[in-house]
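Invent a record, attention on tokens:
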Amino acid sequence: MTANGWLQILFFSLAILAIAKPLGIYMFQVFEGERQPLPRVLGPLERGLYKLCGVDPSKEQVWQGYAFAVLAFSALGVLVTYGFQRLQLVLPWNPQGLPPVGEALAFNTAASFTTNTNWQSYGGESTMSYLTQMAGLAWHNFMSAAAGIGIALALARGLTRRGGPAGAKTLGNFWVDVIRGTLYVLLPLSIVLAVVLMSQGVIQNLAPYQQVTTLEGAKQTIAMGPVASQEVIKQLGTNGGGFFNANAAHPFENPTPFTNFLSMFMIFAIPAGLTYTYGRMAKDQRQGWALFGAMAILFAVGVTTAYWAESKPNPALAGLAVDQSAGNMEGKECRYGITNSALYATVTTGASCGAVNAMHDSFNPLGGLVPLFNIQLGEVVFGGVGAGLYGMLVYALLAVFIAGLMVGRTPEYLGKKIEGREMKLAMLYVLIFPLVILGHSAWAAVAPYGVSSLNNAGPHGLSEILYAYSSGAGNNGSAFAGLNANVPFWNVTLGLTMLAGRFWMILPALAIAGSMVGKKTVVAGPGTFPTNGATFVMLLVSVVVIVGALTFFPALCLGPIVEHFLASNGKVF
């Protein structure tokens, strides 16, 4: 660890802190303001889209209607993306003549991009045509991100709107939220930032792949494609699916230190800004900063641990004639080194992004533990676009309930009482996640068709299984890269895991919003636990960590933790 490395981490953290307020104010104006930004430019487009889609923006939905719209829209997305893959040979913009994608892989990819996971069991440049990449996959990068923002706003409205008058049980309109999120937030930022990426050397073309002769005289194929336009929304929408198999370690996706920083910055920007938007909606900005503070503490602990662990030598190389004074460089891009690899891994798994600039499979055991545990916390360390906010709000309700039990008083959040129905839904939200991960992991760990895909035995092999299903259920999409998941068993079970991890958790969150929105507020009294101060921040962090640890600690002990102690004694798998 070096002073330069710590300064880079500090600079990144300050940049996220700086963007939270202006971006949060802008998004509040977009979604909750009486007049949206740039009304003369984007206003006609917005109204035209409403007319085209048959949407009445003045009509809001109750939670059941909002949920049905999310599910119907997503189901259609799965079918469209599946169709693009199966028909890509006969569709245009396929200069390489890439064949149709197999049924199991097409299902996995359709589920992956619909759920904002972007898990890839394939190499992008050797599997997907340009049209499939743009119209099938990048389209989902916009839509799944906009849907996540909408769900977060629906839960925020349920908590912050005052009950009583007719119509107070509505949570907004899903179609309005998706259109505004795309038109006012994701598209403008993507256009500007894509141009910035192109200025740094990220390619953007529809040219056929290039055949070149290397200095040794061999022939090499250089993949081309519309990379900058795919890359920007991959990061901004916390999607993570790479145009190239090497993802953000590829020089055409991530050519310079500036693009590496910008890549991480885009991942955290909208999730951080949404906490400020929430403060505006609650009419108490300290509520938003409390959520931001909890996320920031979890991020700081994670990046510190990962940086420390990766600064240590790789025990697998002990005794070899390898200089490890720089730390564990196995599986890392030399342009970015230890600091930016550890920082990137923490950022991409704190958010449900999944983009990688290093192979997590090659991290030291405790270094690999950080991205794995980040996902298993529910990806609330700023989290995915929208998903981080609504996940943290569910944990906030749990924290308030626990505080209420401590003082023997009915818990309240923003003046609304938290009762049995909300706690049942919150616990359902919390329990679905480990059920999907641990259930599938146990199956894969004992089935011959599950373990046959592993590249490692022992605890590291278990870590690969846990990471795969954690990444799927957490809608992250990153992988340990030591697992061959492109087989029917893994494609199908991971596809089902991704769908369950997205929609089985969205439904309880929206049900909580529907339950809370109609409640009347009560005046804060002497026994009311304040939720906008440092004490609440620490309680919230503790609840997130304790729930995650109690749920996954036994499995982690059998994976990365025992691997660390075995490696310390010279036993490497």
Q: What stands out?
A: The chain has one domain: 1-210+221-573.
